């Protein structure tokens, strides 16, 4: 199959990009012809090294640029003879829709963050992929027919992004609790700091490591500095590869208020961390309904602190939940994601062929 993947860009530290790059490389490894059309970025060399063609299509949201990009993309889809076009971002989906319509090619879209206002535009796809069942349900409420939706749960194990990377655990002071993610309100970092303050007061040796960047980083750094636990909190900024830090940690914590299907949970489970996360959106699906990690209510620092204390204060409980993180972990392999997505393409192609054969 000839698969054209579409992204606005291929820069690091963006979950949409990571998921699409992982998918493209995995599909190429399965023997398909895959190209990535985007504005370019950090992952172009990795894509090329994994047999994925890279094509430049500038999709910056400026009228003249988009008009030009539409023409470039039309010629690419036509001349490259794509069997299916897969868009991962709203701009890409909007540009691809009229092209796919005119050429009779299925457009598949993936909804990575359904809470974004414009995510309803992903409904332009012949088939719409939701990265968790929770996202699928949300999109149905927003008007996308269940008959056009397919759920393909995220997974990262075996990703080309991690091949050949250093897997030496970083030395962190133990017991080490780690958070990896964007510094945004929806990630619940103030709740984490409030919970950690309780944990640290009861267990002074405990340390919290916060990895990630974002517009609220300075706010959270300042908040931590005013708390009793401040000296035990280390903000480490964005890391190209957080996996060695996860390997060096005891507990991974994700206190999100909203999170469709965070890739980092797959990485934390692969690293063998005990996991505490909030019971929202796609998080329970990635933790096997609580069999692979402890689920707590969102926006509840006290319950979060209780779960963390259970692990910090009880070595047997900590090891038990480390072991539980491996439950059914094969489901988080990128090859499974790639194969299920190929099945979605097959359905979309049959759907397009059925439409073209219908009498006018």
Average pLDDT over all residues: 95
CATH architecture of the largest domain: 3-Layer(aba) Sandwich
CATH level-3 fold name of the largest domain = Rossmann fold
Domain unit count: 2
Low-confidence parts: none
Within CATH, the superfamily of the largest domain carries the name: Glycogen Phosphorylase B
Strand proportion, as a percent range, falls in 15-25%
**Which oligomeric state applies?**
single chain
Kindly, what is the distance between the CA atoms of the first and last residues, rounded to a whole number of angstroms?
29 Å
* Rg measurement, Å: 21 Å
Report the CATH C-level class of the largest domain. Answer: Alpha Beta
Name the overall outline. elongated
Q: Approximately how much helix is present in the residues? A: 40-55%
Outline the biggest β-sheet: 7 strands, parallel
Number of discrete helical segments: 13
The helix/strand order is EHEHEHEHEEHEEHEHEHEHEHEHHH
Structural class: alpha/beta
Q: What's the number of extended β-strand segments?
A: 13
Strand sequence of the main sheet, in spatial order?
A: 3-2-1-4-5-6-7
């Amino acid at each position: 199959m000839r698969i054209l993947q579409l992204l606005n860009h291929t820069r690091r530290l963006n979950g949409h990009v990571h998921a699409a790059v992982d998918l493209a490389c995995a599909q190429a490894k399965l023997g398909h012809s895959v190209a990535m059309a985007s504005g370019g970025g950090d992952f172009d060399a990795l894509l090329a090294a994994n047999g994925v063609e890279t094509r430049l299509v500038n999709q910056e949201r400026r009228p003249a640029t988009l008009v030009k990009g539409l023409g470039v993309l039309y010629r690419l889809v036509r001349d490259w003879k794509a069997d299916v076009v897969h868009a991962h971002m709203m701009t890409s989906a909007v540009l691809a829709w009229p092209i796919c319509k005119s050429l009779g090619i299925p457009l598949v879209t993936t909804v990575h963050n359904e809470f974004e206002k414009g995510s309803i535009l992903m409904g332009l796809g012949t088939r719409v992929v939701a990265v968790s069942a929770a996202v699928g349900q949300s999109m149905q409420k927003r008007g996308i027919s269940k008959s056009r939706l397919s759920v393909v749960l995220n997974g990262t194990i075996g990703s080309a992004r991690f091949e050949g990377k250093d897997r030496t655990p970083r030395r962190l002071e133990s017991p080490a609790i780690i958070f990896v993610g964007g510094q945004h309100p929806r990630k619940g970092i103030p709740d984490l700091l409030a919970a950690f303050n309780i944990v640290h007061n009861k267990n002074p040796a405990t340390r919290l490591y916060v990895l990630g960047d974002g517009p609220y980083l300075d706010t959270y750094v300042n908040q931590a500095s005013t708390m009793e636990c401040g000296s035990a909190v280390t903000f480490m900024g964005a890391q190209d590869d957080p996996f060695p830090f996860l390997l060096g940690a005891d507990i991974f914590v994700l206190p999100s208020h909203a999170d469709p299907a965070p890739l980092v949970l797959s990485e934390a489970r692969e690293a063998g961390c005990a996991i505490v996360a909030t019971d929202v959106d796609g998080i329970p699906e990635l933790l096997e309904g609580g069999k692979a990690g402890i689920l707590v209510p969102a926006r509840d620092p006290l319950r979060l602190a209780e779960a963390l204390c259970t692990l910090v204060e009880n070595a047997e409980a900590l090891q038990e939940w480390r072991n539980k993180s491996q439950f059914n972990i094969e489901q988080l392999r990128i090859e499974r994601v790639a194969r299920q997505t190929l099945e979605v393409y097959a359905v979309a192609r049959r759907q397009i062929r059925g439409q073209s054969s219908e009498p006018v």
